[in-house]
Amino acid sequence: MEVIRSQKRTVSNDVVSTPTLPLYLTAPPMEVRLEEFELFAIDRLRVLKGVSDGLARGRNPNEMDDLVETLWKEHMRLSDVSEMINKDIISHFVLRLVYCRSDELKKWFLSMETALFRHRFRLKKIEEQRAIVGEFGLPYKAVIGAELESLKERLGLVARSLGQISSDVENIYYKVPFEEVPDLVAGRRVLLQKGYAFVAGSQASHGVYFNLKHNLYSALILTNRKWTTTIREREKDRLTPIVEALSTSYLGPDYTQSNEYADISLKDIDQVSKSSFPLCMRHLFEKLREDHHLKHGGRMQLGLFLKGVGLKLDDALAFWREEFTKKVGSERFDKEYAYAIRHNYGKEGKRTDYTPYACSKIITSAPGAGDHHGCPYRHFSEDNLKAALSRMGLSSRGMEDVMDKVRNKHYQLACTLTFEAVYGTSCDTGINHPNQYFEESQKILKSKTPTAPV
Amino acid sequence: MGNILNASVMEDAIKSNFPYKIDIGAVYSVDPDKRHAYAHSGTNLFTPVERELVFDIDITDYDDVRYCCSGADVCSKCWPLMTVAIKVIDTSLREDFGFKHILWVFSGRRGVHCWVCDAKARRLTNEQRSAVAEYFRVYKGNENNAKKVDLMGHSLHPFLARSYVDFLKNFFEDELQATQSIFSSKEKYEKILGMITDEDIQADLRGKWENSARSSLSEEATSRLRWEQLKKTLQSKKNKALSLRTCVEEIVFTFTYPRIDLEVSKQMNHLLKAPFCVHPKTGRVCVPIDPNNCDEFDPLAVPTLSQLIEEINSGGLRMDVDDDDSDRSLLGKSIKFFRSSFLEPLLKSCKEEIETSYKAKIAKTKDSFSW
Question: Does the beta-carbon distance from B98 to A381 stay under 8 Å?
Answer without folding.
Answer: no
